[in-house]
Write a structure and sequence with these properties.
Layout (H helix, E strand, L loop, with lengths): L7 H4 L3 E4 L6 E6 L5 E4 L2 H6 L1 H8 L10 H12 L21
Antiparallel strand pairs: 1-2, 2-3
């Protein structure tokens, strides 16, 4: 049996989003309000202030994400710049904080 092709990006492509705190840009896609896919590129990795701060910490831990960028992506979804796939017609599950 051949693997099924993944057409998710055809139905809902990644959308560029910039962090309002430092300007780092990523591409994002939201399958639901709880699930976000983020594609980091080299320039965004270099630009992200939270990532830089995490790497300079006395005890660096793996970078798990940028809170400021997460907020920017949530706001982009609330404003309709990013389509939330699970919410095509129903907005009753939209979180108050947009994340």
């Amino acid at each position: 049996m051949a693997p099924r092709p993944d057409n998710r990006l055809l139905d809902a492509p990644m959308v560029p989003v910039s962090c309002e705190a430092c300007g780092a840009q990523v591409e994002a896609r939201k399958s639901s309000w709880e699930q976000t896919s983020i594609q980091w590129h080299a320039e965004g990795l270099r630009t992200c202030a939270e990532r830089r701060d995490a790497s300079r910490a006395e005890r660096p831990a793996p970078f798990t994400g940028c809170r400021s960028l997460t907020t920017a992506i949530g706001q982009a979804a609330l404003r309709g710049r990013i389509r939330v796939q699970s919410e095509e017609a129903d907005t009753t599950d939209r979180p108050a904080d947009g994340l």
